[in-house]
Amino acid sequence: MMRARIIGVGAYAPKRIVTNADLEKMVDTSDAWIFQRSGIRERRVADESEATSDLAVKAAQQALERAGLVPDDIDFIVVGTTTADMQFPSTANFVQHKLGCRRIGSVDVWAACTASIYSLAVGSQFVQTGKYRRVLCIGAETLSRITDWTDRGTCVLLADAAGAAVLEASEGESGVIDADLYSDARHWELLYMPGGGSRNPASHETVTAGMHYAKMKGNELFKVAVRMFGECAGAILERHGLGVRDVDLFIPHQANLRIIEAAAKRLGMPMDRVFVNIDRYGNTGAASIYVALEEAASTGRLKRGDLVLLAAFGGGVTWGAALLRW
Ligand code: COA
To answer: Which atom of ligand 1 is nearest to the CA of 112?
Structure first.
């Protein structure tokens, strides 16, 4: 069977750095609290001129360059995001145009932070079935735009970035082996944005009530996240007859260092095989796994033939895991 091999990765983080010390001036918090509870020291925030597609295009350009390809070589684009440029057209649609691609198909995947795994799964399916030879998968967010900067429970966590991976049909061993996707909206009230959709269309009232900001029950979400994370990562390994010992690198969604540590412990995965960069980027939603993948690849942490386990969770709730051979 054909595999979707990752032949180039790219990432882009906005220039502006917001440190914990900067946040101390905005809300009642402290560097010590933020670092101890989340592992975050600083995050990037897009400037006013940058929308999600602008970040996505920069990450995609780097991924294409590293793959030795030009935009015309791409057959389809999938963008995972929760912070689309507009309600419509899709962010992927803007990326298609701004990159200068042919009139290829493009689609956004909405699955909150798990859109990283969802977008990779959607892209790799098109490649595996032989429909498309090369698919550009992107995770991109400007979560700062749906952040209430007076809410200390969320503003210390959320951030902006984009990452991209070019998938190409390959008959070799390397590529996406499998991806498992899950959702359960019984927990939707743990993380959501109520305003602007068909349930609560944008109005003066919704804006006054702050309904265009992300709402989170952090403590409850924490517990659900640790459980889902560990379960789905273990399940995908087991189904493939693999164990934690076979995994060279575990790249989890970077939501909170304590969640990552608890999930790794539950899985029996030593932290020296877990990739962490949340200290410098915060929670970049659907972008986080792509950004981490790029950093792991460009710093030599990933070597050809390595077995890589990815796992994410997010609002909805949604969660999922993927296995790939680098
Ligand atoms: N600075 C200082 N104090 C803060 C704070 C901040 N930024 N945010 C919350 N607090 C306070 C709370 O008000 C609470 O005070 P109280 O005890 O007087 O009521 C106290 O700290 C403890 O709050 P709690 O929510 O129980 O802390 P926590 O240990 O659960 O950590 C999170 C909070 C948000 C860091 C943590 O729950 C978390 O990361 N949850 C998951 C969030 C997540 O991953 N979301 C994205 C999913 S993709």
So the answer is: 48
The 3-class SS string of the chain reads: CCEEEEEEEEEECCCCEEEHHHHHCCCCCCHHHHHHHHCCCEEECCCCCCCHHHHHHHHHHHHHHHHCCCHHHCCEEEEECCCCCCCCCCHHHHHHHHHCCCCCEEEEECCHHHHHHHHHHHHHHHHHCCCCCEEEEEEEEEHHHHCCCCCHHHHCCECEEEEEEEEEEECCCCEEEEEEEEECHHHHHHEECCCCCCCCCCCHHHHHCCCCCCEECHHHHHHHHHHHHHHHHHHHHHHCCCCHHHCCEEEECCCCHHHHHHHHHHHCCCHHHECCCHHHHCECHHHHHHHHHHHHHHCCCCCCCCEEEEEEEECCCEEEEEEEEC
**How much distance in Å is there from the Cα of 219 to the middle of ligand 1?**
6
Task: Tell me if the pTM is above 0.85.
Answer: yes
Architecture of domain 3-172: 3-Layer(aba) Sandwich (3.40)
pLDDT tens digits, one per residue of 2-24? 899 999 999 999 999 999 999 99
**17-21, 134-138, 226-230, 270-274: segment of lowest average pLDDT:** 226-230
Point out the catalytic residue in the list 155, 253, 256, 277. 253
Domain boundaries, the chain: 3-172, 177-325
Which CATH superfamily hosts domain 177-325? Thiolase/Chalcone synthase (3.40.47.10)
173-191 pLDDT per residue, tens? 999 999 999 999 999 999 9
Say if 3-172 and 177-325 have the same CATH topology: yes
Ligand 1 centre and the CA of 153: distance in Å? Answer: 5
Judge whether 101 counts as a catalytic residue: no
pLDDT of 109 over the 80 cut: yes
